[in-house]
Amino acid sequence: MALKFREFSNGDILFADDTGGFFKSDERFFERYVCDRLTETDEGFLQENGQAFDTTLDLPCARSSNG
Question: For helices 27-34 and 40-48, what crossing angle results, to 10°?
Fold first, then answer.
C-alpha cells in the first residue's frame, strides 16, 4: 500500500494511507521507505497497523470477493 507523506517544519514527517490511517516518523524511516530498504521492524510496524500486506489475500476486499 502506498503511503503519502508530508514534512513538518520541525523535520518530523506525517505518513498517511488511502484509508485514513496515519503515523509520524522521521527522515531515517522516510529514506528507508522511499529507497525500498525497510527493516524487519519497519515492516512489522506497517503490517501491525494495516499499512502493509504480505499477499493479496491479506486484504479484506480480496477475501470477501474470493469466498
Answer: 90
